Amino acid sequence: MIGDRSFGLVCLEMALLLLAGPLVTGTIQKIKARLQCRTGADLLQPYRDLAKLFRKDSVQADTASGFFRSIPVLVLAATVTAGALVPVIRVGPPALPLGDAILLLGLLALARFLTAIGALDAGGAFGGMGASREMTIAPLVEPVLMMVVFSTAVAAGTTELGALAAHRGTEWLLAWRAADFLGFAAMLMLLPAETGRIPVDNPDTHLELTMLHEGMLLEHSGPGLGCMLLASHTRQMVTLALVSALFFPAGPAGTGAASLLLGVGTSAAKILVLAIFLALVESSYAKLRLFRVPQYLGIGFVCALVALALRIL
Amino acid sequence: MDVQAGPGLMAACYGGGALSSLLLARGSGRLAVGVGHVAACAGALVGLGLSLGVLLGEPGRTIIQPIPVLFPFARLSLSIDGLSAYFLLVISLVAIAAAVYGPAYLRALSPEARPARQAAQGFALNLFLGCMAFVCCAGDALTFLLCWEGMTLASYVLVVSDDRDGENARAGLLYMVMAHGGTALLLVAFLGLTERAGAFDFGALRATASGLDPPTRTMVFFLAFGGFATKAGVIPLHVWLPRAHPAAPSHISALMSGVMLKVAIYGILRFAFDLLAPGAGPLPSSWGWTVLFVGTTSAVLGVLYALQQHDLKRLLAFHSVENIGIILIGAGLAMILWRQEATSSALATVALTAALLHTANHAAFKGLLFLGAGSVLCRTHVRNMEELGGLARRMPSTAALFLLGAVAISALPPLNGFVSEWLTFQALLGGATRVQGPGGLIIVFAAAMLALTGGLAAACFAKAFGVTFLGRPRTPHAEHATEAPPSMIAAMAWLAALCVALGVAPGYAMRLLDAPTSALLGGAGSSAVVAARGPLVLSVALTPSGIGGTAMSMTMIAALLVALTAIAWVLRRGWRRGSRRTAPTWTCGMSPSARFDYTATAFAKPLRLVFAALYHPRRDVTHETSESPYIVRRIHYAGEIVDLAETHIYRRAARDISILSQTIRARSTGSIYGYIGFVLGALVVALLLVGVIYR
Fold first, then answer.
1. Taking 70 as the threshold, does the pLDDT of residue A210 lie above it?
2. Smallest Cα distance from A36 to chain B, Å
3. How far is B475 from B201, CA to CA, in rounded Å?
4. Domain count of chain A?
5. Which of residues 74-93 of A touch B (CB under 8 A)?
6. Domain end call among B146, B180, B198
7. Which of A130, A299, B112, B225 has its CA 20 to 30 A from that of B346?
């Protein structure tokens, strides 16, 4: 079975996800600032932050082990590899089989696991706190995400995201059924959890009471911190691309340069819509107490399970 | 050399090792241990060659060898088919590591051990390995049961061999009781068959079983399943496992957790698909669903209990419960799907492949982790991870290998744990689409629980690795630890290499799975179903028409990961090579000490609260004050969780039994007339019952 997306295209998509990741973060920050009647930082501010970090010296905790230095690199690599598994510009299975949605979730889990290891390495209480909370939320998010993926995969007969999107592409928006709506609702509930945003996590704060992900980054500095931040931008981007591949898999069919540009444009539009959704949610809700989060995710689980039940029964 | 000579040579190695260890008991203990382990290693290498010879030889070949007369009343034999050879392979792979690891470990852990004890350890190790190998190669019920019993007794000796406190003896006793309860069930199951067949060998049993009526068949299966499940440690029959496994020396723990439990899996598969399978048509539906349910429960509860353990080896033992559960999910699904329709048989092969692959994977990474825990134990003499910390700087190779095992067991790519879980997920998804209705929903729920299990395992190992190896040392034991001896590192590196190889190139392992899957299920083997597109790509077709399907290349992903890591490494060095300096960790202005490090209890606390309904956590905090109640001198904290099976089943049963015996004792007056009265009463009741039944 020769697929529709060549390896070069897959690499291009991966690079696009990596490079556009900070822009999406900048967009969300800008929208949030406007909603709070502030001017806000420039859209390109995350790029400037990264450039600054990569030029800096680094300081390492004196108790950290040899693993500490390699962790940002591995986290970034695992997250970007996950980016190779989502279709962005065009739909269809890749010519060279790489992996499916389960592998994508596995790679994101690998990045999270390594981040937690890095947080524990420095031996401060903040890192441990962040790692403990993150590893509490993550096992609860993963089954729900898996259910959402399965609820679309059952219909398509595959968990490979490109093929899944291609299958759904023929019967897209007008053919949405109850299962799709429920699955999408579950996915929207998971989106803040997976991208580390309110109401599950607060990306803007290092306050002890509210942080999850940021607490794990405290001991990283300089280029290492730059890698970690780039990884979290990419992770957010990959998650948004996953949502659009599962639920809005429209893309042009041609092969020319024009259709390639059109593909970039449509996926940018889809991701922009989801980014606006994230910014709106983040501006209009408060962060949940940590022990409320399992209940919040429980609603998502019920939605996803009902969606799957509707598909199977 | 011909594979026909394999079984004899293997028996000679293990037997010779056991005997020479015993003979050397009078002399030097170190020599006895050394000879015993060398012989065990030789036996394992022979077993490896034998199993590879069968697995890669001509398809469908079964080696049958008679055993020279032991008993006048029965002819014993060995029969090695694909399934036997596969489990023999798994046993041999871990046995090599254990045999290399053992001598240095025993010397480092207890240098002044008496020669007799050392000889007993060498003897029991060989007996244990030999019996495990021959359980899988048994060709008749008697050989099977004899080796099964030998395996239990030898492992009991090893569990209590390191008896410095009474704890190990109690663990050993519980293990004995549970193991023999299981063996009793197995005995009944086998006797039920042999009595009908009039012979012991599996061929005769198979022929008899194909003519059994369905209720008897199901009853025999559940008897055997109960017996094997006790040995495999599935919840709620697991209570012995987290006590006995940590008590044994660590390389024996690696064998018990990594391999001995798998022998029980072998038994379940042998009974379900081979001995008891009906001549035609699917297996009774109650079998597969029960196994699936038990597997899912064990997986989730096993990992949840593991999360709250602070004893490193006990934590690993609970993870064995979890992984046995994952294997049983695959096995149960294969039972459900087997022979359902023409199109499902491929899916049953996928499910069985997942189960068998996870068997090998779990043996590799659990062996690695137990050996890593053993290295920590022999260098610090501490098992409680709250008293460890900072070992990564003191034992870097051990830490790196343990981390690799932790990534593998957490089912994270690109290592082997992920591959078998991926196959299990694909089989579950395919099963859910095939088994429509409520059954499909149960299968989907099992998939969700499997995802939960993977996530919780990652949390658990972030804790286990982080608290043991990272941060600052919390006690002088951890402070003065040094790197483990090279032979122990080498044994761990061997298992780590297996984890990487099975993770990065799983397609090649599918070739080894062809023989067991086609021997059990018939039809195409694993590599035709899962590695149809070449060994570098795993692919599964979910829909019967073959369209769609999912393909994944672990090799490509690993290559991509390595390439991106290299690019990121260059990027991280920055375009201006920045300097690196070290500084103390920020602890809000106080001088950092080990008290700032997150402890294992604290790390697992949020999950303890989230799953409080399952844990029933209990905490006692007492303040010790001086004269004024406002000046606290000391705070005592004690927290514990309960094991639901233990409190709700075992304790309750123990309480009921003791109440019953108290009541009986109250009636035992010592007067002879009273007893005669009881006997008379019992006789009357019995006669009445007989009269009612045979009226």
1. no
2. 31
3. 57
4. 1
5. 74, 76-78, 80-81, 84, 93
6. B198
7. B225
Q: Which residues between 90 and 149 in chain B have a beta carbon less than 8 angstroms from any beta carbon of chain A?
A: none
pLDDT attached to residue B357 = 95
Contact B571 A54 (CB under 8 A): yes
- Helix/strand/coil percent split, chain B, to 5: 70, 5, 20
Residue of B nearest to A227 (CA): B572
Note whether B384 and B515 are same-domain residues: yes
- CA dihedral (B485, B486, B487, B489) in degrees, to 10, reads 90
pLDDT digits (tens, 9 = 90+) for B489-543: 999 999 999 999 999 999 888 889 999 998 888 878 888 888 877 788 888 876 5
- Quick: pLDDT tens for B79-88: 999 999 999 9
User: Total domain count for chain B?
Assistant: 3
Q: Do the domain assignments include residue B654?
A: yes
Please say which residue of B548, B567, B586 terminates a domain: B567
Contact B592 A224 (CB under 8 A): no
Token pair in block for residue A302: 């019920």
Which B positions 572-601 lie with beta carbon below 8 A of chain A? 572-576, 578-587, 592, 594, 596-598
| Cβ-defined contact of A313 to B437 (cutoff 8 Å) | yes
Q: Could you tell me whether strands B77-80 and B618-625 are parallel, antiparallel, or unpaired per DSSP bridges?
A: unpaired
Domain hosting residue A157, numbered range: 7-312
Within a domain: B249: no
Give the residue numbers spanning the domain of B503.
Answer: 282-567
Residues A114 and A121: beta-carbon distance below 8 Å: no
Instruction: Flag whether A53 is in a domain.
Output: yes
Residues with Cβ within 8 Å of residue A62, at least 6 apart in sequence: B582, B583, B584, B585
What is the Cα–Cα distance from A139 to B456, expressed in whole angstroms?
Answer: 5
Q: Which of B400, B458, B550 sits opposite A158 (nearest CB)?
A: B550
Write out residues 146-175 of B within 8 Å (CB-CB) of A.
Answer: none
